[in-house]
Specification:
The chain is α/β, with parallel strands linked by helices and 203 residues long. It is 35% helix and 21% strand. Helix 1 links the parallel strand 1 and strand 2. Helix 1 crosses helix 7 (181-191), helix 4 (112-118) packs parallel to helix 5 and helix 6 (166-179) packs antiparallel against helix 7 (181-191). The termini are far apart.
Length: 203
């Protein structure tokens, strides 16, 4: 049972050249929800080392690496240009597969879907990813069925989201699904997340 004494653990994976908003967006949602009373704990875990540089130059140090990370109930795998490198690292894919298998929920943002595909978690499932990287991700997750028209897609325990900012939408869905719509709405309001981009909402 998830409660204040047994919070839901949200593990957010990071790696060199990870896209910043892919993981910071979900981080903001889940930590805001926690401040508002959701019994959850969010943390970052890195490959191969805790200190790394992200795709746009931001330097971060993760809470854990895979050698000392606690169990996660929900694992979020972000994207970014670094996915093209880590997807070729068999040790990373094997380690990620085991970590995902121990979780109740597996999720991705943007090209993180390619990593879910390589670990086998998208086999036979509907999914989505960044529209600009759709062909490449499909080639890495050939047993999945991709939708280009949805911000996020749930298929069983796996939830995938489109490019960059779509991870915020997906994370708010998780908060509503796991902790109730009222808390999710309060989280969205606290973030003032009411997108009205100056150039419209079409691609």
């Amino acid at each position: 049972m998830v409660d204040a004494n047994n919070p839901l653990n949200v593990g957010i994976v990071v790696f060199p050249d990870v896209e910043e908003l892919d993981f910071v967006g979900p981080w903001e949602v889940f930590t805001m929800a926690a401040q508002l009373g959701a019994p959850l704990k969010a943390f970052t875990l890195a490959w191969p080392e805790k200190a790394l540089r992200c795709a746009k130059g931001l330097r971060i140090e993760a809470d854990y690496d895979f050698s000392d990370a606690p169990h996660a109930d929900l694992v979020i795998v972000p994207g970014g240009k670094g996915t093209r490198t880590v997807i070729m690292d068999d040790a990373f894919i094997d380690t990620l597969r085991d970590y995902l298998a121990a979780a109740k929920w597996q999720a991705s943002v943007c090209t993180g879907a390619a990593l879910l595909g390589q670990t086998g978690f998208l086999d036979g499932k509907r999914a989505t990813t960044n529209h600009a990287a759709m062909d490449w991700v499909r080639s890495m997750a050939v047993k999945a069925y991709f939708s280009a028209d949805e911000r996020y897609v749930r298929h069983g325990s796996v939830v995938t989201s489109g490019g960059v900012s779509a991870g915020i939408d997906m994370s708010l869905w998780f908060v509503g699904h796991l902790f109730g719509h009222d808390l999710a709405h309060e989280t969205q309001r606290a973030m003032e997340y009411y997108p009205e981009p100056p150039y419209g909402t079409t691609r």
